[in-house]
Amino acid sequence: MSKCPLTLANGAPVAEDQNSISAGERGSLTFDNYHLFEKLAHFNRERIPERVVHARGTGAYGTFTLTKDLSEYTYADLLTGLGKQTQLFIRFSTVGGGQDSSDYARDPRGFAIKFYTTQGNFDIVGNNTPVFFLRDPIKFPDFIHSQKKDPQSNTPNPARMFEFWANSPQSFHQMTILMSDRGIPASLRHTHGFSSHTLSLYNTKGERYWVKWHFKSNQGIKTLTNDEAAKLPSFGAQQDLFDSIERGDFPSWAVKLQIMTTEQAKTYHINPFDLTKVWPHKDFPLIEIGQIELNKNVQNYFMEVEQAAFSPANVVPGVGVSPDKMLQARLLAYGDAHRYRVGANANQLEVNRPRCPVHNFQRDGSMAQNHLSSREQISDVNFYPHEQAHLATPSPEYTEPPLPILGEAWIKAYDSQHEDNFSQAGDLFRLMNADQKAQLVNNIAGGLKQASQLIQDKMLAQFYAADSEYAEMIKQALTN
Ligand code: HEM
Which of 60, 193, 324, 397 is least surrounded by Cβ atoms within 10 Å, i.e. has the fewest? Predict the structure, then answer.
């Protein structure tokens, strides 16, 4: 095999890589150590900011295969044409821990999918839970602060978590799910995914449908207790996913939708855009539409996972958002995070790059690299409107049907404290068997015991509002 020369960043061969150049055997170093300087300087720049949430995770490539044509609801390319395959990338993550935390935290798992459709990238940036802790985005930074490490000790502090929840009853449903026996997935393959939010589909007639996406693990669900999780190596779930794909044991998920018409939404007793609530399956049954399989590992973790940039604003013709306030805020937050964390041209990186041509007049910026492959970037006309038949123009045929405003339209901050925060959590509790109830109560009491009497009392009022047995069991566990 021919020799592979070690080079500098400019491509020139390096003659010496083990000894710095010095004036005399004992030093000092000289200024012609450009190889040393380049090596140290690049090393200083190896990190980009970790994601402010969902910092720890891993990802893989795969395929979505459509098994039910959805032309009735949408003209989205990936959802029309029986048997159509769309390439995708999924990143799984924990939420609160930093990059060096454990894969086995009691925490929701991020389940972010990027579909590389022929009409652009469609991202579903969901979790492994059908609901979330909040229905109003203005609470998100406070919520995350309360769950992350204590700012003084830099260690987890369950008392602070419960201090937030005690004063934010809208978190109660998701808190119950998190503390249940489902709270620690045993692997990334053995967990479901959800859009959680209500998204939408619209068809060529301009009819819009509200849709929740579900990704049901074909491997089944496997979970861990706190004690089981504590015994596992912190990287175990990432290793498990990587190894299973390497050995050809490809994990897969059935893709299912719940679909609500805009007419049904007007009178349904649950606000369809409240992220703290599920749509009961008896009212809106799951419709299977396809299969996802993960079948290819990344070649370089930093390039493809760390720099992956998912955004709920990445929608494609035929797919839309909804008025969900949380989702609306996320439409802004993710692009902003990418510009800070990865850079203005994050979408030009291989993992983020649409697999269809990109034509626009967004120019230049840090690390711009695809300018020679885009007509708009090499033309002297770098603006729209223009008179150039070969340059990009908008496509009015893809105009979205207007989003309705449901309810009052006075502009003000609406207080949602009188929403029903407890019925669905109570229903969930009543579905649990005795062992599941015991696990739930122990998991909650372990943390809640560390909070003040005031916080415990406020939480107890919430447990009573959900189910009196739930409350009595917690009360008992707090005194043990
Ligand atoms: C107002 C509410 C929210 C805000 C402001 C917010 C903000 C963020 C930000 C800034 C990131 C880091 C993005 C990056 O650096 O690439 C992130 C990541 C993420 N968020 Fe949210 N988030 C919110 C709610 C949610 C909800 C409700 C879900 C799930 C239903 C969710 C799922 C995720 C996932 C899965 C990631 C990781 C994406 C990846 O793998 O790169 N977030 N979020």
Answer: 397
